[in-house]
Amino acid sequence: SNLSSATILSPIEKLRDGIFDGTALTSFKVPESVTIIGNNCFSWCTKLASIEIPSSVTSIGRTCFYACESLTSIQLPSSLTKLDEKLFCYCSSLNSIDIPNSVTFIDQYCFLGCTSLTSVNIPNSVKELSWGCFADCKALPDITIPNSVECIGDGAFGGCDSFTSITIPSSVKVIEAGAFKNCANLTSISLPNTLKELGGFCFENCPKLDHVKIPDPVKAIYDGTFQDCKALTSISIPNHVTEIGGICFRGCESLPAIALPDSLKWLGNQAFAGCTSLTSIVIPDSVTPLDSSTF
Question: Strands 257-259 and 234-236: what pairing?
């Protein structure tokens, strides 16, 4: 654990799993013979401030830089096709990263808790943003999601407090549960007409979000999607929606009225509970049964 410097002289192809885990390394140069950096290789190297990775590296294992609290920036080789799970999780000093154009997938919790991250470039090659990949990146400002992304995973941007306005590109077909929950300063989001699914709790506790238009292809608004969106004053629900889940709008205390489509068949428990400003709502005859706790 007291190891503060290391040099590898012999030509090796892989840095084995956990080789420097928890050491006191401050910097490291990966040999040019290396093609694979193993899992947990530099995890908990809290003093690691710089690392050089050669273009020969094609794979960096999961949690490789987990909790490298002193790492401020890193240049990734263009040979990578994936950023593995928890790769930079809790790298609390990491402030910028340029993701290579070769990367197609950002795995779960990749940048979770990178609280100093203010700049990230997501290339047009990325097709999926997995679970919690940028969750709790509290300093990250409004981000550009490229028009190659098809799925935004569970909690992908949850707790990104610096978001104010987000535009979802037309390539996105699915936004999974909790993708933007707890974004304290998010005021607006533009959803594409190509969106087919909006997951439950997607915008839960976004207290400044004031209006949303749900795209036509969406057939259901699931549990808790807009729960505790206290500033929400306008919501447009398309005519194809058949289900509004439980606690969907609970705590939307600024919502004055809502137009429910004739296609609606199901209103979940406490769907509008705590909507203290709601003065006008017409429930279609097609909704049966109507639960006594809906309001």
Answer: unpaired
